[in-house]
Design a protein that fits this description.
By secondary structure, this protein is an all-beta fold. Helix content is about 0%, strand content about 55%.
């Protein structure tokens, strides 16, 4: 039987950078992705962000630990999003790193984010409820 552990955390880096991260991700031994994927309901906050800083919340699937490959989807507020709340997806795999933004988000709402793998295909897909 395959078990899924979910870990939630916030990391604050000190010194000149103050990035705030919160994530929920599948964690198990390498080579054992979740059967059909993961999903999470994330409550959207809207806090002020100093110039050059950002914050994000997301759902992640770790595809490989060595090399470190992952797929994640969530929302962020940063200079890249012109300090608006915006959904994004990110992946890092043998084809390289990609991040892209889609859908504006509104504060004080809950959005469902998901990452899934069809049992018959090798690719992962991610998105949100809108």
């Amino acid at each position: 039987m395959l078990g899924i552990s979910v870990l939630a955390g916030v990391q604050v880096l000190s010194a000149s950078s103050k990035h705030f991260y919160a994530g929920y991700y599948y964690y198990n031994s390498e080579g054992w992705p979740p059967h059909h994927g993961v999903k999470g309901d994330i409550y959207t906050i809207d806090r002020s962000v100093p110039e050059g800083e950002f914050y994000a919340q997301w759902v992640t699937v770790i595809l490989s630990y060595r090399p470190m490959y992952w797929v994640q989807v969530g929302y962020a507020k940063s200079q890249t999003t012109q300090y608006r709340l915006q959904s994004y997806f990110e992946k890092n795999d043998k084809n390289g790193y990609i991040t892209d933004y889609f859908s504006l988000r509104y504060p004080d709402n809950i959005y469902e984010y998901w990452i899934s793998k069809h049992p018959e295909y090798l690719d992962w897909r991610c998105g949100s409820d809108d």
